[in-house]
TrEMBL record:
Recorded GO MF terms: acetate transmembrane transporter activity
GO CC field: plasma membrane
Residue ranges crossing the lipid bilayer per the database entry: 7-27, 33-53, 60-79, 99-117, 124-142, 154-172
Organism: Flexivirga endophytica
Keywords, in A-Z order: Membrane, Transmembrane, Transmembrane helix
Keyword Transmembrane tagged: yes
Pfam families the UniProt entry points to: Gpr1_Fun34_YaaH
Annotated localization: Membrane
Protein known as: Uncharacterized protein
Amino acid sequence: MGDPFPLGLISFGISSVVLASVMSGMFDATGMSAVLPVAIALGFFTELIAGLLHFARGETFPGLVFTIFAGFWGSYALLVQFYSPDVVKAGGDPTNVTGIYLLAWGVMTAYLVIAALRTNLTTIVILGLLALVFLIASWGTFAGSTGIGHTAGYVLLITAIVALYASAAMIVNHTWERTVLPIP
């Protein structure tokens, strides 16, 4: 069985680039309609497949990481598509639930960083930056600050670039049967 790690990383990376482009303000909020299909197709389904393949190989940590973040992408799409608009339509404010949602993901991702300390620098950086993204996004949500939210988007873009590089390095190195692109 091949290594599903590059599949999970490229799925995460592409999904994150698309989301980060809207979060950072590079594209306006109407771009969110492009984020949701990518979140479902790549973020949810493809990361889920990568995670399940890791579990089948007996690799608990990457299996957990990819399946739990598949859950993030699926739940995020549902939150944005259904929950928030329904709350707003009913005259409510989805801020508190969204802020807690992001904070919970930040805390969970932070404890994954502790587990990642037994892996490699690239995994530590990806998860560390991602924890920071969630915590900054939560803070921006609670504060009602677009600027803080944009900062979270730029940190997510950096995270995505690291993940995409790692995926590319794994595929290139495997194909060339030697280290062409180092993975720290």
